[in-house]
Each structure stands twice: as C-alpha cells, then as structure tokens.
Specification:
There is one protein chain. 27% of the residues are buried. This protein has one domain. Strands 1-2 form a two-stranded antiparallel ribbon. 71% of the residues lie in helices and 5% in strands. It is mostly helical. The longest helix is centred in the first third of the chain and has 33 residues. It contains four helices and two strands. Keywords: Membrane, Transmembrane, Transmembrane helix.
C-alpha cells in the first residue's frame, strides 16, 4: 500500500497552525468586543479609534477562519492538497502577528507544513495491506 508521509511533519504543522489560528481568533474577537464596548460607552471621544479597531479586528478574523477551515478539511481528508495555501497563509499571518505568541506559533506551523516532504513510503508488512 502506497501512502504519503502524512503522519509526520505536515500533520504536526497543520495542528500547530490550527492551534495558533484558534488562539488568534479568540484574541482578535476579544479586541473586537472591547472596541465595540468602547464605541458604546464613549460615543463622542473614542468612536474613530473604536471603529478603526473594529475594522482591523474584522480583517484579522478572516485569515484565522480560512486557516481553520482548510486545516480541518486537510486533517479530515488526510490529504496534503492545500499544503501550500495553508502554509503561506500561516506564514503571512504569523509574520503580521509576530509580536504575539500565537504569531510565532502560526509561523512555525507554516514552516513545518511547507518543509514537509511528499515522499511515498512503501509498507512491506502484508498484514496491513488493504485496498
């Protein structure tokens, strides 16, 4: 039975990216909530700052959701077809958020995914041969 080396570096990279994207999604949602509350409390003073923060938070949510969707689909299907897309999104989003810990987590996950080999391994054990 031929199979790709999915269980190695690529799977670990996807899991690390999913963890980083989940943390960043929660962090950005928290900042968005604080901005929304700030806009409600300080209507005249902080409305411009609150609106700008809210827009930045909405823009920050989109890459996290895409990484979560593509990563979960990749793990579910056990395929590496979206390897480049998830890896590049993780690296770009990780570089943008490098000052936070989850930015470093995303960066490491993206590098792990892109550096994973797509070698085919051969299983010589006849007990595990299934079609």
């Amino acid at each position: 039975m031929n199979k790709t080396k999915f269980e190695g570096t690529y799977k670990a990279g996807v899991i690390v990216s999913i963890v980083g994207a989940s943390i960043s999604l929660a962090w950005v949602a928290l900042f968005g909530l604080i901005a929304a509350i700030g806009m409600g409390v300080f209507k005249n003073i902080g409305s411009g700052f609150g609106l700008a923060t809210l827009i930045i938070c909405i823009i920050g949510i989109i890459p996290s959701i895409l990484i979560l969707i593509f990563g979960a689909k990749s793990l579910k299907d056990k395929s590496a077809d979206k390897r480049i897309a998830i890896g590049i999104m993780s690296i770009i989003f990780g570089v943008l958020l490098i000052i936070f810990v989850f930015g470093i987590i995303l960066l490491v996950g993206g590098i792990m995914m892109l550096s994973a080999s797509k070698e085919i391994t051969y299983n010589d054990n006849p007990q595990n041969m299934t079609e």
